[in-house]
Specification:
globular; alpha/beta; single chain; 5 helices; Collagenase (Catalytic Domain)
Length: 167
């Protein structure tokens, strides 16, 4: 892949120890989604690891929902138009915030690895940064298919006990 994808990862929590390889997995996942979507040009994505308290504050502040969630996406672009980092020329896609505490709990709930859950949440939110939504049934199905395709590419297929949202 010729175009450079810069993924800036920040850990703002101490609740869950970040296992070795998670940062690389997040970078690979961002790259896989952009490749799948045939994204053109250099890109920059910011990924922040937080805990349930941190993500709840963001959810309340930006979405008026006073509850923790697993992941939040803050797209910087609209209709394929993005701000450009003047130093690098990269399109700034936006910010992804993952509650690693929630991811750990969901991995246990769904019966799959922490790596699988972090990968899935990353793929899900990068698709949001590219303009995907899951408000309508068909969009939800299309988004889920893309997420699973990326998971399979990264060697993290769904486990048999994986719970799929009711469509």
């Amino acid at each position: 892949m010729a175009d450079k994808i810069r993924v800036v990862i920040t850990n703002k929590q101490k609740t869950v120890k970040i296992p070795t390889g998670i940062r690389m997995l997040v970078r690979r996942c961002c790259n896989a989604v952009l490749q799948l979507e045939k994204f053109q040009g250099p890109a920059e994505i910011s990924v922040t690891f937080t805990d349930n308290v941190g993500i709840r504050e963001l959810n309340k502040q930006y979405r008026d929902k006073d509850i923790e969630t697993d992941v939040l996406s803050f797209p910087m672009g609209e209709n394929g138009v993005y701000d450009i980092d003047m130093e690098t020329g990269a399109k700034i896609l936006g910010d992804v915030v993952i509650s690693v505490e929630k991811a750990r709990d969901q991995a246990a709930l769904y019966g799959h690895s922490f790596q699988r859950e972090i990968g899935y949440l990353t793929a899900h939110s990068v698709l949001h940064l590219l303009g995907y939504d899951h408000m309508e049934k068909l969009e939800k199905v299309r988004m889920r298919e893309k997420e699973e395709l990326v998971m399979e590419q990264l060697g993290l297929p769904a486990s048999s006990s994986y719970i799929v949202d009711k469509i």
